[in-house]
Fold each of these.
Amino acid sequence: MDNADKKRLLREMIFYRRFEERTFEAYMERKIGGFLHLYSGQEAVATGVLEMAVTGQGKDNDYVITGYRDHIHAIKTGASPSEVMAELYGKENGCCKGRGGSMHIFDASQNFMGGYALVGQPFPLAAGLAMGCKHKGTDQIAICFLGDGANNQGTFHETMNMAKIWNLPVLFVCENNGYAIGTHINRSTAQPDQYKRVDTAYCMESSQHDGMDIDNVMAAAKEAIDYVRSGKGPYFLELMTYRFRGHSMSDSKGYRTREEEKEWEKRDPIKLYSDKLLKAKVLTEADIKAMEKEIDDEIENVIIKFAEEGPEPKVEDLNKYVLDDNPDPRWIGPLQNN
Amino acid sequence: MAELAYWEAIRRAHDEEMARDKMVIAMGEDIGVAGGTYKATSGLYEKYGEERVIDTPISENSYTGIGIGAAMIGMRPVIEIMSINFALLALDTIVNAAAKIRYMSGGQLEVPIVVRTPGGTAHQLAAQHSARLARMFMSTSGLRVVTPRGPLDAYGMLKSAIRSNDPVIIIEHEQMYNMKEEIPDEEYFRPLEGAEIVREGSDITLIGYNYSVHLCLEAAKKLEADGISAEVIDLRSLKPIDRETIRKSVEKTHNVVIAEEDEAPVGVGSEIITGINEDCFFALDSQPVRVHAADVPVPYNATLEKAAIPNADDVYQGALKALGKI
């Protein structure tokens, strides 16, 4: 990876942090409604894993799917940040025309197959995407990002089993941030090492790595993705991380200590990576400052502007997209012979 | 024309669609090597192989979810759930995912899956194998729910469901798999929407769906012996419901009975009568009558089971009640 790429990666992570923190402000201003789950702290995971996948190439991308903490996964896969922000604003120019919102970001044009609010639901959907890839004989793989909390759903066990017996090209990325909403992993999960839950139980290749250092993440992801793409079957990659914000905006974080938070903040993925690049003289403090300024300008003058100025969906379109809006009468009817 | 059993009609539809389109696959418990609990997929495993006729583990929610994921990128999975009772395990992926993905994505994605499942009582299968649950699926936005009453529709509607771009729930019935009917030798399609008048009449409308259409037809024969002319409507589709056909019939006969094998509360009958109230209340000469199951978990004991589930005589009695004859 050359210096330009390293700078780009740092810029991406700073952008993701600033994007999320700006959505926080918009939420407080009531520009964004519903539930909002921020990714701050976990940036190295989505950024590092997807850096190793095929993204930004439209329909040639790998398929990516995740839970409700989905803004950044969508953007890194190739979704337009402006359209994601407009979606959070519920506008017609949002990526889902304002029908999905924060927890349901989709960009089919980039193979970002959605954010889902039922914890654990994306496991089987991801395996299905992988089944489709295998059936069509493409080189694509499916990548499923979910938190450690999802692994206590039945879908986790059912899907790990089927992904393995059918040898599906799917990478499960477990973003282990230690909490299932507000319950610590040691209180919710008999085996806290998530990668161990699939190795003997489902005979699946798996490993656990630090998820705060993006270089570590990329190295682990490359190995996992190469494995899956080579046709060897599914892989379960556990990355240890931490969310700096609460589970959602209504979370006061009363279940964890300030000391614990401070420990993790020392390993802020952006700080770790910028320190590394500064030390290697890839860039200077002034470069980072300039980068931040440029990002803030872009967010304010392009992205927020796009969302603010976007039109409201039309009430007369309320019933669109429920079923196929242009069905073939040969299959749908109605029956003519009464 | 050839006489085919219901299960043979389903198998033929699978076979033709799988031969035509490689994207069509079948999934479910015991559908491949074992040929399917009701034989509806027999022979397909040998013909299309294990990649396209997929024996799943007993994991209803997740194998349905896998079908949904595959459908999102162009596959056409036909998923068999062995009993509608087990479909409750898959409600999350059916109701929260399949039914909502098109909408949540603002129309970017579609989920063209077909879920086939028998819903109905058979013989002493007891409470956990006798649920009907049509009312649960018909209350979900984003699904199509159809109820083929015989081989003609079982074949033609499955063909249409596979071609349709929407998630379609096909509710079959354990007691109908061996039912026979003449169906054309050449390929045909039966649309997913639209009720059908299966018997014309002028004095009263009997409305059924799935197995209860046959109860209505039997009741109509008995009524005919009494000099009462009954029209029988097969709803065919529970979502959406063809209210126009119902309205026209009620405006002709002015009396109506709804026969459902399910329990009454928040059921098919409730919905049909609400539609009649909204569309043609003043055409009614009598209070609509619901014939339905007792509001109990289905008992194992044969006598109690018989008492819990409506039969043709109950529909007949319901018609007499509507007409003020009893």
Note: The two ends of chain B are 43 Å apart (CA to CA).
Amino acid sequence: MANGESEVGADAPAGGFVQLLTPDGERVDSVTTDGGVTYSVDFTDDEYRELYRDLVTVRRLDAEATALQRQGELGIWASLLGQEAAQVGSGRALRPQDMAFPTYREHGVLYTRGIDPIMPFGLFRGVDQGGWDPNEFKFNTYTIVIGAQTLHATGYAMGVTMDGKTGNPDGEAVIAYFGDGATSQGDVNEAFVWSGVFNAPIVFFCQNNQYAISEPLERQTRIPLYRRADGYGFPGVRIDGNDVLASYAVTRAALDHARNGEGPTLIEAYTYRMGAHTSSDDPTRYRIASEVESWKAKDPISRLRTFLAKQQLADDTFFAEVDETARTVALDLRERVLAMPDPQPVTMFDNVYPEGSPELDAQRAAFARYQASFEGSAH
Amino acid sequence: MTETVTLGKALNHGLRRALENDPKVLIMGEDVGKLGGVFRITDGLQKDFGENRVIDTPLAESGIIGTAIGLAIRGYRPVCEIQFDGFVFPAFDQIVSQVSKMHYRSLGKVRLPIVIRIPFGGGIGAVEHHSESPEAYFSHTPGLKVVSCSNPSDAYHMIQQSIVSDDPVVFFEPKRRYWEKGPVDLAGTPDLPLHTARVVQEGTDATVVAYGPMVRTALEAAQAAAEDGRRIEVIDLRTLSPLDLGPVHESVRKTGRCVVVHEAPGNLGLGAEVAARVTEECFYSLEAPVLRVTGFDVPYPAARVEEEYLPDLDRVLDAVDRSFGW
């Protein structure tokens, strides 16, 4: 088995996982898997504190978005609550030249790329369908069809190889995000086949948050997800997805493995979706409160806070400042979301084809004339 | 430098030139490498351009299109071969939900210059899934452009025009015409932009609109009609999305009669759209309703009866007769 059991893995699923920070805030120096790979982190005090700031900030932004949705300002919101460590750890593991392919829930990864957190809000507010340039931000547009982006990531990674950008420590790597439900999709399995066959420089980062909307993991698989990698011929490793240090260490190693030309890795981040699938979902219909409570004890933020406090790396002044700064960032986000203008209806005709279409131009002109016919009337 | 070559060889020449002209052009698909494709359209290309330019892929159509999207985001221009019309459906989601929408989704910041080549249509005595005409699905999808060639010269030029285009193009190849020969100016440039229809035979009495494999059928019908003294104008649509119906409208205003021909089932096919648009634009010129000659609304039948399913010269002439009898 390619997976390691942490020394203090009482909270680990059967088969274990890589854990470098326990729910009680205890550091584990290093974990060596049965496959002989050793994972550890070597952060400065400042770096530990900044990871904590990231986690708090993305959770605070997420809470603001949930509030905005409840107030009718967003059509829908896909909350990352509970998955902050998986996203921040893996996101911070990316080097600037690396490319990420998100689902629609990777707001934390987006944040770690240094991207203005407002970027996906056009999508959720309903003023556009995304609208950013993947190559500018090294962060693909959100993909809503489950698993489709894993193939895009694989193709992109094949292109990295063709461009001669692998096989050295400064090379490029690609990370594809998806969830436990997506592992049942044909596209994800095809992406595994292709990346294996072409030795693509890619990391498949599966956030197993235990539910695909209402369906529990048992409806998607009868073996642990990380073991699927065996069948495709590349390593699979499970991490404590609520441990930002494990997420960072294992993702960093897998990305370097990829950029060195050694091929793909599947990482299963074992975590929990603390909130609803989206703001339209009601999780009380399919899971019990005690389960949610048991995962609260494994919270990704409180364990890092405990660690920082115990090690005297941070004090209450620091924690208060982080909270206050996150609040300021969130309120700024709120103001800017509320100020987002609705698009002009005629812009729906824009950007259908790079090279345009005379037929569509005619439709647009007819629509514009129709709209103009109401100008000055009470319509 | 005009040569007489088959339609299949013309495509091969066109692909070769595209590979020569732009190092970002890739060919990918099942069996496109050593074998040269099941129809040999990519014959010899891997040998000359290498395994990184002409890529034998795993046997997974969604994977072909999905990875082509990633390669296009990376700056490549993939030309994907779907082996047969009926095998495109595993890739349907990637084509209609991703290829077609990425430019729109990104507010114009991403271009996916992907060409999806699909040998289509019947008449080759094949088993199920090898003779279908799925062009309406793709023509119905905003964000895709859809074309079909009918002769070697257009095949040679249109495939290159499709590859150069920054739009995603679904390129339907009339597989039963792969072996038909015609003149191609291999050093020449195309005489028409990609998304234009062509009047392939002038006439004054009725207009027959076709595309892909049915253009030859329409021309044969026109020849037969000429023996009865009827001069049929034949228009090759060439572009299915967007349609270029200007030449059709102009023709129908002259002839007053219009028959649309395709192999695909009639219900909600291209013929229905052409008929509606011609009716809107040429209402006062029409002497008869626009008629359609199409495949029937059945799954593509067994090969032993496909000749009865496929529109042929007689069915086209029958429709022309009905138009005159209105």
Note: Confidence is low (pLDDT under 50) at residues 1-8 of chain A.
Amino acid sequence: MTALVRARGLVRAFGGRRAVDGVDLDLLPGRRLSVVGPNGAGKSTLLRMLATLLRPDTGTIELVGHDIGARAQRARPHLGYLGHDPLVYLDLTAWQNLELFGDLYGVPALRERIPEALSRVGLLPRAHDPVRTFSRGMAQRMGIARLTLHEPTLLVLDEPYTGLDAQGARLLDDLLAGFSTGGRGAVMVTHELTRAVELADEVMVMRAGRSVGRMETAGLGAAAFADRYRELTS
Amino acid sequence: MIGLFLVAPEDADQGVIQRIFYFHVPIALVSLVAFGVACVAGILYLRGGREHWDEVGVVSVGLGMLFSVLTVITGSIWAKASWGTWWVWDDPRLVTYLVVILLYAAYFVLRSSAEDNRRARYSAVYGIFAFAGVPLSFYSVRVAQSFVHPVVFTRGGADMPGSMLIWFVISLVAMFGVFATLLQLELLQRRADRAMRDLKTRLEALMAGA
Amino acid sequence: MNPAMARQLRALLTKDLRLELRTRETAVAMGLFALVGMVIFQFAIGTRTDDATPFAGGIIWATLALTAVLGVGRTWVAEREQRVLDALLAAPVPRLVLMSARAVALVLYLLAVQVVVVPLAMIFFVREGSFADLGLTVVVCLLADVAIALVGALLASMSVFSRARELLLPVLLLPSLIPVVIAAAGATHAVLGPAHALDEYWRYCVFLAVYAVVFGLVAFATFDHILDD
């Protein structure tokens, strides 16, 4: 069974300060990992490396069996990345955005897929309005539509609940629940400890660029985890 | 070097000012070599990512700039002596060096405004880019043909008496020596700086730990 | 370039076109800037002579080079302002396609400006212009645009990740464009000027082509190191 993520000895420094300082990470298919930690712990840097947006200074990453030092391009079609921002063009309509990203990912039968994707996130009535006219929550739902259009195997989510409305949060909850099947998986950075425990199979706690604790969420209550978290990060 | 002033033969037409030729041409050639070194260092940096090559690149471009400016200054003095004006726009070599100086001045602007983690890579790319621009600038300026500049080297070989040639070669070798020495010195100093910085951070970490 | 890449390139260009058609800010600003530029050059030089024909090539290309700075400066701006760059870089798009899309878009901007500006310049500055001359000038425009676009796409992609990018870009771009201005102005002058020297014209055109090829190769060899972090 090919691991979805296999990262070894990741280090990335910015101007002499090591944001990520020697992290190993494995993710098997069917597993969802959430990453928590205080501000500046290096969570986003780690995630950007997993999304092929940042190269590690040292260390190796394999995503879905492809070493991204040599062939990041092979891994990218399998990834779905969502950050704080929806990562769509505000001056294009919802439809045009999906058309663009569908073409970039080489999605087949795009004309049928776009309305499906839009109705899934409840934006079909606004398909031909520019995203700029959307509310923050709607724009973020647009981000979810972009994220899932090419049916990624591995979700890489950086604080995806930021700015999401109730409807969007439910959508994302369901999406994450579905990623425990079909050989898929997800890595999510979040500051919401409850969601970190409830929506993932495993939690990793980061502090000062290092992983200071990993635990299974099965049988771990949110309250018990909150205590452990305080212990590990203080 | 002093020999250049005292012993080297003067040109019958041009008199004492001709001695500047012994500086002007070697300096000009060395500046091109310096930019070439920067280009090669850029390629090596992009290949391997070693900080050493970034330093070689930036020091070479700095020295290349220094020598280009000297080229333009000596050329301008020569122009004043030979043609009575400090600057002639239809002299392709002088104008090319001006363009090259502008081209490489941008290197330092780019370097100072690039993000920390991209600085070395962008410098390397621009070092390669600008070196490709040197012959193009030279040719584009030269397309407007000019006969103002004395053409000393012709296709048949060096068009000057043997004793002049010897002094010219000596000067050329000396200038390369100056370039190599300055490059080494500057690199040594940077290495020392880096070692010092590392030591400082390690000391600070030690103090914080204690 | 395989079919998948062609589809990506088309999608990126459609996106640029749609963004531009929504606002029309870049093309309009560039066109107006070019007109104002020509008028300024005319008042600075042309008024001292009754016939501006000898200066036409120079005025046109000095103006267009400065105008190009505006167009190149808009490269990646929508991505930065609307914060989509990460989505493009995380998508499986070869960097060659991203850069080519930028360069093609730049050529289109420059052509859109030249369609208006060059005929006007011929009316303003040239005494005895003919349609054949205009045709020859179009060739110069195409060659120079490709050259400017390649250099512009490369340098703009570096300045977008830098501080004070509005200041950096002109300082970075204009020195590299000096050879283009020399050659394009020379070629235009050879056609429109009093001498009508066609052999000179072709020599300049060949130079523009060589320039485009050289910097195309440099861009091809280095852009991987620019876009990815």
Note: The mean pLDDT of chain C is 90.
Amino acid sequence: MLVPILRQGPYLIASIQSALTDADLLRLRDDLVEQVGRYRSRGVIVDVTVLDVMDSFAVRTISSLAQMIKLRGAETLLVGIQPEVAFTMVQLGLALTGVATALDLEEGLSYLDERDKGGERVGGR
Amino acid sequence: MPQRIAVQANVQPTADLLSELVAHLGQNRTQLREEWARRITESVLLTAMTKDEIFAEATSVYDNYVEVLETGSVEALQAYARNLSERIIPRGVETHEVVGIVLLLRDVLARSLFKKYQADFGLLNRVLDAYEPAANRIANTVAVGFVQERERIIRQQQEAIRELSTPVLQVRERLLILPIIGIVDSQRARQLTEQLLRGIRSNRAKVVVMDITGVPSVDSTVANHLVQTVEASRLLGATVIVTGLSPEIAQTLVTIGVDLTKMNTVGDLQGGIEEAERLLGYDVTSTGRLAAAHGDRE
């Protein structure tokens, strides 16, 4: 299932709509890495609100996606992780190091705005 | 043929001997009961109870005891032991006391048997053969009943403590505090983390101050639980500030080498809240009205 990627000002928003296969995830990664350069985006937000399972492959793919996007000069923000998913990830030792996080899309956008303005940082890191 | 007789001698008379035994214990009820109560007082057992109470309970135990010898069924005694335990546990009666008095009763009765059958050693032996297994079973039943009751109470209390769940409180918009009091085991840590994550989401919190002043000790398991809680909160976009690490806990953590670099720690709850306010962009200033308000009241 294709993940829609929306442009919102200087940011890209990938809003996941349903459970993704491994291939879908890789496709999402490739699309984002490509588009972040094409649209000269400063930040990428991946919204995982609908996911109630995040396996190790998903976590690894998102980590690598964040690293790639960093190399392309933008920041990745993961938003909408469910409490149960967060708990399971931590228990399995799947910490998303190097990926900033926020509660939901709204928080994520305001976090990126703050960061662009050079304001004080809260949360995430 | 002699073999057959031996078998009969072993099996057949046991019931007769037991009923004779029961009759003996029935006849000497008053005297044996008093002797037993005297021995209990002498051994300084059941100090939490008065003499009259001891005597009353002794009577009930004695009658139940004789009944078990008579019927061979421990069910009534089991129920009685549970009931007794329920009454005496809140008064601080210890396991050794309960086991002690039952063993004393066994000894008192055995002595009286020795005395009665001292003339006939063979008969005494057979009487004891009949008496001892029954007596041991009774002692077992009472002790197990007592311990089970105690365990039930302990379980009940654990449940009660668990239900006094850790509150997640909002002190300012986007700022939660989580005061942890008492021992943190795996189950509680799990519950605590789940509660905190839910709290973060429903209050849209950005900063959480986790105060562990009330946690008596921290070992590597607890420390790892704390690290996990911090990590999970981060995944929801909230920063966790841990406060109230006592000098002992700080030393323990450093000694056992738990990696706390991911944790943001501040000395006490006040400092934690101030740091959180700074992160959230609050600027709390005193209006200087405290003195005036104080003056008004006077």
Note: The first helix of chain B runs from residue 2 to 27.
